[in-house]
Structures are given as C-alpha cells and as structure tokens.
Design a protein that fits this description.
198 residues, mainly alpha
Length: 198
C-alpha cells in the first residue's frame, strides 16, 4: 500500500509541475493576441505566424494542463449524487469512472491520433497558411501528451480510490485525500443513519 501511495504522490506531483509550467502559456497567448490587435488596428499590418502562435499556444496549454485539472477536480462533473456522497462511495464512483470511461477513452484517443501525429512528423508539417508558423507537428503531438497525462492522473485516481477502500487513505498527504463531506460533517449523530441514501 505504501507503493500505491508513493505512485499517487509521484503522478500528482508530475502533473502539478507540468500544469503550473504550461499554464504560463496563458500569458503568451494574451501578449500574442494583444500584439495582433495592435498591429492590425494601429499599424494596418498583420502577420499570419503571429495569429497562428496564439491559437497554437492555446491548444498546447489546454491539452498540457488536462491532467493537472483532473487532479484538482476542475473538469466538469455532474455531481448531484457525488458531492453529498461519503468518501467511500466517492472512491467507488471514481474507480468505476476511471476503469470504464477515462482509460478506455484515452486508449481511443491514442489509437486514432497516433497515425495523424506520425504523418505530421513524417513531413515536418507546418501551418496551412502561407507565412504561418512552422512546426505544426509539435502542436499535434500535444494530443498524445494530453492522453498520457490524463491516463497517468486517472491511474492516480484509481489508486487513491483503492487506498480509500482498503482504509489506507491516511498514507496520502492531506491535499491528495478526498475533501471532507461538509454536509455529512454537519449532521447530528441521529441523522447519520441516512448516509446510505443517495
């Protein structure tokens, strides 16, 4: 169980570092977009490579931070049942979700994108716009990066769920544990008998 906890900590730390670094691309996006607007409306010039740049940075940022967002719980979740659930039930839902949805979908993403990405690398694909950015193959590679980081974080989620189900969540640092259920914590002792109801 110590090894599982170490793996959860390692994967979460990796995604946290990558997510924080890649999120700085947002500043580059703002600067590039602002530059395009100023050039166009103040100086009457436009560079296609600069327009490509902020679009490509946007794509790289959102695919690069996906694993970090999953670790933080920032992805959209319909949680009318999940939020008030007990920690154990959340662990079961997460384990099911990772095994049935996240991991199979990431396999599909890799299988379908791999030929697309390798073909792009085979002829060093650049922008389809004349005067656009070179290196489109690098941006397309972020599809694989996205799948790899989300898969890793999915594995970390599944392992965390296993630790909870084995009553070993205490092996994880506080920030990697399930947040306490505020509604359950506020219940009086006589009300806790309804915990099993959704």
């Amino acid at each position: 169980m110590q090894a599982l906890a170490a793996l959860v900590r390692g994967i979460s730390a990796l995604n946290a570092v990558i997510g924080r670094v890649v999120s700085w691309l947002a500043l580059g996006i703002v600067i590039a977009c602002f530059t395009v607007v100023v050039q166009r409306y103040l100086f009457g010039v436009s560079y296609l490579w600069l327009r490509d740049l902020y679009i490509w940075l946007n794509g790289a940022m959102f695919t690069g931070v996906a694993g970090f967002a999953l670790a933080r719980g920032d992805h959209v979740r319909v949680d009318i049942f999940y939020r008030p659930a007990s920690v154990r039930r959340k662990a079961i839902v997460d384990l099911f979700g990772v095994l049935v949805f996240i991991l199979p979908f990431m396999v599909v993403v890799v299988l379908y994108s791999w030929p697309f990405v390798t073909r792009s690398w085979s002829y060093w694909e650049g922008s389809s716009n004349v005067g656009g950015m070179p290196g489109l193959y690098i941006l397309k590679s972020f599809i694989i990066v996205f799948a790899a980081l989300v898969t890793l974080q999915g594995v970390a989620m599944a392992l965390r769920a296993i630790l909870v189900l084995a009553d070993r969540e205490y092996l994880l640092p506080e920030q990697l544990r399930y947040p306490p259920n505020v509604a359950a914590a506020l219940q009086t002792p006589g009300e806790t008998g309804h915990e099993g109801a959704l």
